[in-house]
Automatic annotation (TrEMBL):
It comes from the Bacteria. It comes from Streptomyces hygroscopicus subsp. yingchengensis. The keyword Membrane applies. Keywords: Cell membrane, Membrane, Transmembrane, Transmembrane helix, Transport. This is Shy14. The chain crosses the membrane at residues 97-118, 130-158, 178-197, 236-263, 283-300. InterPro entries: BPD_transp_1_N, MetI-like, MetI-like_sf. It is a multi-pass membrane protein. Its main location: membrane. It is found in: Cell membrane.
Length: 312
């Protein structure tokens, strides 16, 4: 496990280097943007010096990553605001959005996938399976717009867009603002997870040791709960990790649809403004979240499967 933790740290450092270098390859010059179209070369050079852009890339990277290690992601080159402060503010929206969607997706996919496998020859199992296939086929953007039309425009139960100006100081209104985004992400990601849960449970149902458990007196449900679900969980946890990573990317789209002031919307705005200090901090945060999820999936595997613990 220490080796896996060390690999996580190396991966984060490699990702930070890649993010830093790729952003420097983008066309345009932020110093020219700040100076304006009428700025002289000397004025542009002065702006570059003030921003530290005339230093070697290695020195720029060292200064940035050194701050990141201490929790300081730098300052915006456009307005001078703290990137760390803005990331914390935006993550207060994106974090609950992603976490709530994962909880809803699991609550929907796990029992539905088990039912679809156990009752695979019944109408109920076929209906659940068809619903999962439909959820995979529908684009996330379309699902979000459909939910807005039904629940915000037609029945007017929930707000169509936006988030309270005071944020979580108004918890009731904040939660109402996240219900439709939660459902949008949960239905799209949960449908994929449902299919994998169904496949994993079907594979377990055909194992000899499960038939042996039933021969010893366990009912099919009892044998599945006591012996089968733990084995079925290993591949499902792997897929769940991938789905959570995909959900982080999907949150960018959902934040645009529902006009949520999260990290995704902030990223799109800052890319357009070419505010590189903010962009690299945002991308590093999202990349780090994906890498940490992979690390947690490995931990979950070792907790579920004792054979993996014995190899550490």
């Amino acid at each position: 496990m220490l080796r896996r933790a060390a690999l996580l740290v190396v991966s984060l450092l490699a990702a930070s280097v890649l993010i830093f270098l790729v952003l420097r390859l983008l066309p345009g010059d932020i110093a020219q943007t700040i100076g304006g179209i009428k700025a002289t070369p000397a004025q542009v050079a002065a702006v570059r010096h003030d921003l530290g852009l005339d230093r070697p890339l290695a020195a720029q990277y060292a200064g940035w990553i050194g701050g990141v290690v201490t929790g300081d992601f730098g300052r915006s080159v456009l307005d001078g605001t703290s990137v760390s402060g803005q990331l914390a503010e935006k993550f207060a929206v994106t974090g609950p959005l992603a976490a709530g969607a994962v909880v809803l997706a699991l609550a929907f996919a796990v029992p539905s996938g088990i039912v679809a496998a156990v009752r695979r020859d019944s109408r109920l199992g076929g209906a659940v399976n068809a619903f999962g296939q439909l959820g995979i086929a529908l684009p996330t953007l379309w699902v979000g717009l459909l939910l807005v039309v039904v629940f915000a425009v037609q029945v007017r139960w929930l707000p169509a867009q936006g988030f309270p100006v005071d944020g979580w100081a108004e918890p009731g209104q904040a939660l109402r603002s996240l219900v439709l985004p939660w459902l949008t992400l949960a239905l799209s990601e949960g449908a994929v997870l449902l299919r994998f849960v169904r496949s994993a449970v079907l594979e377990v149902l055909h194992q000899d040791w499960l038939r042996t458990a039933r021969a010893k007196g366990h009912t099919r449900t009892g044998a599945l709960v006591r012996h089968g679900l733990r084995n079925a969980a290993v591949p499902v946890v792997s897929v769940l990790g991938l789905q959570i990573a995909a959900l982080v990317a999907g949150a960018v789209v959902v934040e645009q649809v529902f006009v949520l002031p999260g990290v995704g919307q902030m990223l799109i705005t800052d890319v357009g403004n070419r505010d590189l200090d903010k962009v690299q901090g945002e991308i590093l945060l999202l990349t780090g979240a994906v890498l940490v999820i992979g690390f947690l999936v490995d931990l979950a595997h070792r907790l579920i499967d004792p054979r993996l613990r014995s190899t550490v």
